[in-house]
Structures are given as C-alpha cells and as structure tokens.
C-alpha cells in the first residue's frame, strides 16, 4: 500500500502541470473571441446577440458532443481522448482567422467546440482514475485553475492583439499559444490505469442533481456577464478601448486562486455549504457591477469570478468523487453537458437581454439564475458533511 501511495504522489505531481496545460489550451481557444465580440459585430454587421453566437455555438456543440466522446473514451482511453482534443482544437484555432464570412466562422467554431469536448468531458474522470479519491479534490482544483488561466490568457491575448492586428490577429495569437500548451500536454500527460468495464450499468443518483444544477445555472450567469462586458466597457460613460477593456479578464487570476483552494473550502465546510457560499459570492460580485464607477465594475468582476470558479471546482470534484466508479465517466460527461448547455444558452440569452434592456436587467436575470442554483443545492444537496478532511499536503 505504501508503494502504491508513493506512486500516486509522483503521478499526481506529474499530472498536474500536464492537465493544467491542456486546460490552458482548451479554454484559451474556447473563449478567445469574447473580448473581440464588438469588433466581430462591427465587421460582420451584427447586433450583440448575433455576435455572441461565436461563443454560444461552440459551447452548445461541446455540450452535444461531450457524452458521445466520454463514451468513446471508455474504449479508446481517456488519455488518448485528451491528447486528440487539445491538438485538434489548436489546429482549428490556427485556421479561424481565415474565415471569410461569419457563418463560416461559426461552423469552424462549432467544430472546435466538438474537439474541446474531448478534454472537457473526461478530464475529471481521468484524474479520478489516476490519483484516487483522497487526492481528487486538489487535482481537480489544479485542472480548474488551468482552465481559468486559459480563459484569462485567451481573452487578454485576443483583446490586446486585436488593437494592432484586428480580431483575426487576436485569434491567431491565442491559437499559437494554445498549440504550444497542447504539445506540452500531449508529451507529458501520464498514462492512466485501464478503465474497468462491467456489464452492470451503475446508476447515477439524485445526489448529483445539485452539482449538475450549479454547472448549468452558474456558468450561464457567468458567461452572460462576460459576453456583455466588452459592450458595457466600450460604451459611454466608460468608453474603454478593446485592449483596456480586456484587462477585466485579469479577474481570472482570482478564479485560478479560488479554484485551487476550493478543495480546502469543501473540507472545512462540506460541499453543500461551500457551494452555497461560493454562489452567494458570485451573486454579490455581479450586483457590484451595476454601479457606474469603473473601480466598482472591476471589483465586481473580480469577486464574481472568484466565487464562480470556487463553485465550479467544488461541483466538478463532487461529481467525480460521488459517482459510482462504473458510472464515473458518464457522470462527468453529464456534468459537462449541463455546464456547456448552460454556457451556450445563458451566454446567448444574456447578450440578448443586455442588447434589448441594458446591464441592470442582465444583472436581474443572472441573479435569478444564481438564486435558483442556491435553492437547488439547499434542497437536493447532502444534509451532512460528505467530504473527509484531506491531508494539507494535497494542496501544497
């Protein structure tokens, strides 16, 4: 047992940077168009809701592909699926700047969303197979931290590069960064033990309803706010340039820290209390953005980003830890399906709300979604602490 535990420690340390690199690559690509949505709207003569399809369509495609790819990974291997995912999505990213029309761009983005689903749908299940239950919360936190770093770098890279080179140059810069990260992940990702197959189809209980709801409703509110952020920051009275407006995505640094620390939060409070707290913080941050001063808007995005990523990390680890081993891949796929359906639907609907009714009504809509997520956790979440206290070294 001591030898097996020592091997898992070494494997965990190797897997962390590799999975984080895969997350950086995937989520930099997925959300790179977000800061240049105003430029896409101007170039292709679109309103905010139409331009947001560059985000909504690939996330919806990801949601539809995640369960089939999770099932395929049971046969082909989860490591192989992750490697395929990060390499193909990066190559599609390199081709995106060549899109001659917006419909072509959207089709290419849909294909990219399918490719990203290979990592997004199996990452947590791969880590559960690799590191075991005792280190899972910390490992998933590292993965989510990589995802948030990727989202931040993709948005910042595209936003700053769009100044001198336009939105096409911005997307090309992000694709080049993602290709480097995906090559590193493909080379260093450890092999996981083979997935045990059984004829008995394990059931996924109702205890997972709470994290599924958090995935859908939480990310719907989060993406809706960030989709509209570029328009709000560029409009009077703030009137920021695209490069300066993209600095709001530095808030993702707080998301990186909060997701990495989310395992400790769940250990101390229990999953149910940790999720409610994180969602309440997200809602409080979004309310701050209603205020006009720039510092209030920036502070609001920082707070809501920290809260959301903590909630996402706890919910993701909850699914991977509580699902039966035979159903772990399926449960992770369902969580990812809920997450990206919420992202696509919430992001597109939120952009439409902002375009027709303004920022204040967008905050009303997203706050209602977050409140519904909190109620679901309180009603469907476990009534006792479900997470055993983990050694401190897991989070070092």
Automatic annotation (TrEMBL):
Its main location: membrane. Belongs to the major facilitator superfamily. It holds the Pfam family MFS_1. It comes from Nonomuraea spiralis. PANTHER family: BLL2771 PROTEIN, INNER MEMBRANE TRANSPORT PROTEIN YNFM. The chain crosses the membrane at residues 15-33, 53-75, 82-100, 106-128, 135-153, 165-186, 207-228, 240-261, 273-291, 297-320, 332-353, 359-380. The keyword Acyltransferase does not apply. The keyword Ribosomal protein does not apply. This is MFS transporter. Residues 1-385 form the Major facilitator superfamily (MFS) profile domain. It is found in: Cell membrane. It is a multi-pass membrane protein. Keywords: Cell membrane, Membrane, Transmembrane, Transmembrane helix, Transport. InterPro entries: MFS, MFS_dom, MFS_trans_sf, Sugar_transporter_CS.
């Amino acid at each position: 047992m001591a030898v097996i535990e020592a091997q898992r420690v070494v494997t965990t340390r190797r897997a962390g940077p590799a999975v984080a690199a895969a997350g950086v690559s995937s989520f930099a690509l997925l959300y790179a168009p977000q800061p240049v949505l105003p430029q896409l709207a101007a170039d292709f003569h679109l309103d905010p809701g139409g331009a947001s399809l560059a985000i909504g369509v690939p996330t919806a495609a990801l949601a539809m592909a995640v369960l089939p790819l999770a099932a395929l990974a049971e046969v082909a291997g989860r490591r192989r699926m992750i490697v395929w995912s990060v390499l193909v999505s990066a190559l599609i990213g390199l081709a995106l700047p060549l899109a001659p029309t917006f419909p072509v761009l959207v089709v290419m983005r849909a294909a990219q969303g399918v490719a990203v689903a290979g990592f997004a749908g199996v990452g947590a299940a791969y880590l559960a197979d690799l590191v075991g239950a005792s280190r899972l919360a910390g490992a998933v936190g590292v993965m989510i931290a990589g995802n948030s770093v990727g989202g931040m770098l993709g948005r910042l890279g595209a936003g700053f590069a769009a100044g001198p080179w336009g939105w096409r140059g911005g997307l090309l810069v992000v694709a080049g960064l993602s290709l480097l990260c995906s090559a590193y992940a493909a080379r260093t990702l450890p092999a996981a033990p083979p997935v045990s197959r059984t004829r008995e189809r394990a059931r996924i209980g109702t205890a997972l309803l709470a994290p599924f709801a958090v995935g859908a409703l939480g990310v719907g509110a989060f993406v809706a706010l960030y989709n509209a952020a570029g328009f709000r920051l560029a409009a009077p009275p703030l009137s920021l340039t695209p490069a300066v407006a993209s600095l709001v995505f530095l808030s993702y640094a707080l998301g990186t820290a909060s997701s990495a620390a989310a395992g400790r939060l769940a250990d101390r409070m229990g999953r149910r209390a940790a999720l409610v707290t994180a969602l309440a913080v997200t809602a409080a941050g979004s309310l701050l953005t209603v205020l006009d001063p720039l510092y209030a808007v920036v502070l609001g995005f920082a707070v809501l980003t920290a809260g959301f990523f903590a909630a996402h990390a706890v919910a993701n680890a909850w699914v991977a830890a509580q699902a039966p081993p035979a159903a772990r891949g399926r449960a992770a796929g369902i969580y990812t399906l809920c997450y990206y359906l919420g992202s696509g639907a919430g992001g597109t609907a939120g952009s439409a709300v902002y375009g027709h009714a303004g920022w204040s009504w967008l905050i009303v809509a997203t706050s209602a979604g977050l409140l519904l997520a909190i109620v679901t956790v309180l009603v469907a979440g476990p009534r006792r602490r479900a997470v055993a206290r983990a050694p401190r070294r897991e989070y070092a």
